[in-house]
Amino acid sequence: MSELDIQTPTTFDPFADATADDSGAGAKEYVHVRVQQRNGRKSLTTVQGLRKEYSYNKILKDLKKDFCCNGTVVQDPELGKVIQLQGDQRKNVSAFLVQAGIVKKENIKIHGF
């Protein structure tokens, strides 16, 4: 018989690449901007996924002032802090976040209708 190459099985971790990518500074963390329909013509815009180091209340204050709408910061048990604004402000919020340098344009996901 010919010589056989014997290979010993090694452990393979299929999630090794995913955990290595998350640990770096270049991890993709998206900011989700959604619109929710309330009753009739009323709607609600929510912003989630901002970094924890940002002051949500200061961002909310600037958003309310720029867009002439009311809003609040809600603590959600699953999603963390979420900014809620009255009306459909998706395009305005995404433009504001990019212009202020809080998020890059490619890291914003706009959902709804």
Automatic annotation (TrEMBL):
* Protein family per UniProt: Belongs to the SUI1 family.
Q: Which InterPro entries match?
A: SUI1, SUI1_dom_sf, SUI1_euk
What is this organism's lineage?
Answer: Eukaryota, Viridiplantae, Streptophyta, Embryophyta, Tracheophyta
Q: Which residues cross the membrane?
A: none
What the entry lists under SUPFAM superfamilies is as follows:
eIF1-like
Q: Which gene encodes it?
A: LOC113743335
A Pfam family hit: SUI1
NCBIfam families, sorted: SUI1_MOF2
Q: What does this protein do?
A: Probably involved in translation.
Q: Name one GO biological process term.
A: regulation of translation
Q: According to the lineage, what is the superkingdom?
A: Eukaryota
Q: Which UniProt keywords apply?
A: Protein biosynthesis, Translation regulation
Q: Which residues form the SUI1 domain?
A: 31-101
UniProt protein name: Protein translation factor SUI1 homolog 1-like
Q: Recall the GO molecular function terms of this protein's record.
A: mRNA binding; translation initiation factor activity
